[in-house]
Design goal:
Length: 254
């Protein structure tokens, strides 16, 4: 019984007339990049389980991480302040200039925290942009407050930039935590050299060859400079950061 040969060409047909093999679509597109990749990824009609939700979750995670780094620095500053105050007033023989050294330590923590706050503001500003332009718009059906927010956010993802200056970051951290710490520390120093000093003030505030009056003036000027730096009029570039002036203005409007 003859066996059918399906692979051979038909009678009267050459091998060149055989049907060509079917093209593999996966193989034909493997070497080319798809120009439509990414289209519709961040459309305005996308649901809460889309790529934007994952993007928002990742930005919140980054912001929380840097927020925790800020809190860590603040915790160490408070611990050092408590240790310095406890040791300075433990016995009468402990030198008062340790409280002045505490000012240097607090200033170091302030510098570190200001640098971390500038990095924290990068992620916080992104989260605030997503909250204002997507989630708030989706909740009440209003129009975006910034029509160019997509362009600004895309540029920030391409080249992340620090949006606030070091001076503004220092002023913000002074207002929030460090100015009260400096005030407590220097008030304790005044009490230490006046009520617990071995001599009358200003001689009791002296250190070695440095007169007490000079040190007192230097401490006063430094504290006054910190107050001016924290409260001088300025244009705040931190995006949507809660501040006491804004809260007072809203309460008075009500």
């Amino acid at each position: 019984m003859p066996t059918a040969n399906t692979g051979a060409p038909r009678n009267g047909a050459s091998a060149d007339d055989a049907d060509p093999p079917a093209a593999d679509p996966d193989r034909s597109t493997a070497g080319r990049s798809d120009p439509t990749v990414g289209q519709g990824l961040l459309d305005a009609e996308m649901g809460p389980s889309s790529a934007m939700a994952h993007l928002y979750r990742g930005e919140v995670h980054r912001m929380t991480f840097w927020r925790e780094r800020l809190d860590r620095t603040t915790n160490w500053a408070v611990i050092v302040l408590a240790a310095v105050l406890t040791w300075a007033f433990s016995t009468d023989g402990n030198p008062h200039y340790l409280l002045l050294i505490g000012n240097v330590v607090l200033a170091t923590f302030l510098t570190i925290e200001a640098r971390r706050y500038r990095a924290y503001d990068i992620w916080r500003s992104r989260v605030r942009t997503l909250q204002k332009e997507i989630w708030a718009v989706g909740l009440d059906g209003s129009e975006p407050t910034d029509p160019a927010w997509r362009t600004r956010l895309a540029d920030d993802y391409r080249e992340p930039t620090v949006k606030i200056t070091t001076e503004e970051a220092i002023a913000h951290r002074l207002r929030r935590i460090y100015l009260p710490l400096f005030a407590v520390l220097n008030a304790a120093w005044v009490v230490r050299v006046t009520a617990f000093g071995t001599a009358n003030w200003p001689q009791s505030a002296g250190i070695g060859m440095v007169p007490g009056s000079v040190l007192t003036v230097a401490v006063g000027i430094t504290l006054l400079g910190a107050i001016v730096l924290a409260f001088r009029p300025r244009t705040w570039h931190a995006n949507a950061e809660l501040r006491t002036e804004e809260l007072r203005r809203e309460n008075s409007a009500e």
